[in-house]
C-alpha cells in the first residue's frame, strides 16, 4: 500500500489549512482506491450493491457517503482554523494595548490562540503525530489499536454479556408472542413453510451419495457390529408383546395368507394331491384337498377373529420366551450376535441401505416440492394452529420464553468469550494508519467542535483572567 500521501500529511500536520484539507481528501480517495490492489494478502475491495464496496481491511465503503463526510470534515476544519487565524489577527492588531477595552480584547485573543492550539493538538494526537513529531502519547489510534480492541472486548463482555441483562432483554422482547403474531399475518405461515421446504430440498440434493455411503460403511455398520444387540432386541421384543403392538402385524399376516389361499385354490389343492399316496384314487385326493382348503380358510378366520385363540396365545408365549432368552440365555445371545455379524458383513447391506436412502430422499423431495401438496398444506395448518395456541396460552408463552432465555444464557456462557474475542482479533488485523483515517472520517467533524469550543472558551477565560489581574492590587 502506498503511504506516501499519509507520511507527507504527517510531516506537514499543523493547524489545518485549505490545502491540507484537499490533500487529506485526496489521500483518503487514494487509500480507498489502492486497497483493491493490495498485494500483502489483505482483504480486497469488493463492490457491492448501491455503489458500496469493501474498503481497506474489510471496511464497508460508500463512496458517495464518504465524499459527503470529507466535505463536512473539511468545512468544520476550515471553521476551526479560521477562528484560530482570526484570534491571531486580533492579537497582532491589539498588541501593546493593555488598558481599556482593547486590553480585554487582546487578552481574549491571546487565550483563544492558546485554547485553539491546545485543542488542535489534542484532536490531532488521537489520529497522528502532530507536526509529524513522535511526541509521547500521540497517534493514539495507530499505536494503541490493540489496547482499544481489548478495551472494547472487555466493555462488551462486562456490560452486554451478563446473564441478568440477557434475560431482561429477551423477556422484554417477548419473542414467542411476536413470532406467533408474525406467523398469523396473512401469507406468513405459507411463506415460512415454503422457505423451510426449499432449504430442505436444496440440502437433500447437496448431500453426496458417496458421503452417505461412507457414513454407512465406515460409521454406522462398524458401530452396529461392535454393539451387542441381543439384550436390546430382547427387551424391545418383550415390551412389544406385552403392549400387544405385534397384534396388527399378526392380523396382517393372517389376512395375506387368507387372500393367497383364496386366489390360489388350484395351486394349494395340487400341492396336497401331489403328496398323497399313489394308491389313493384321484377323486378321493381331490375331495380331501378341497376339504383341507376349506378347513384352512376356516382356521385362519378363527385365528383372525378370536384374540384369545390358542395359536395367538402360543405365538405370544413363543415370543416372550425368545425375548427372555435374548436377555438372559448366553447361548441364544451368542446365536443372535453371530446372525447379526453375518447380516452386517454381507456386501448387499450397504447397497440396500443406499437404496432405502435414495427412495426416502426422492419421496421427501417430491412431497416438499409440491406447493399444493398435502405435506405443505398440513405444515401451514400446523404452523397456524401452533401460533393461535401460543397467543391464547400465556403460560405456554412464558415457558417457551424462559427456555429461550436459558438457551441464550447457555450460549453466551459457553461461547461469549469467543464472540467478544472477534472484536479484539478484528482490530488487531487492522492497519493502524488506515484505521485512524476511517475513524477520523466518521467522527472528525464532531471533534472539530472541540477546537471551536476551545477557541471561544479560551477567549472568555482570558478576558476573565485579565479582569482579575486588573482588580488585584499590584
TrEMBL record:
<dbReference type="GO" id="GO:0005886">
    <property type="term" value="C:plasma membrane"/>
</dbReference>
<feature type="transmembrane region" description="Helical">
    <location>
        <begin position="78"/>
        <end position="94"/>
    </location>
</feature>
<keyword id="KW-0472">Membrane</keyword>
<dbReference type="InterPro" id="IPR007383">
    <property type="entry name" value="DUF445"/>
</dbReference>
<protein>
    <submittedName>
        <fullName>Membrane protein</fullName>
    </submittedName>
</protein>
<feature type="compositionally biased region" description="Gly residues">
    <location>
        <begin position="48"/>
        <end position="57"/>
    </location>
</feature>
<feature type="compositionally biased region" description="Low complexity">
    <location>
        <begin position="27"/>
        <end position="47"/>
    </location>
</feature>
<feature type="region of interest" description="Disordered">
    <location>
        <begin position="1"/>
        <end position="59"/>
    </location>
</feature>
<keyword id="KW-0812">Transmembrane</keyword>
<keyword id="KW-1133">Transmembrane helix</keyword>
<dbReference type="Pfam" id="PF04286">
    <property type="entry name" value="DUF445"/>
</dbReference>
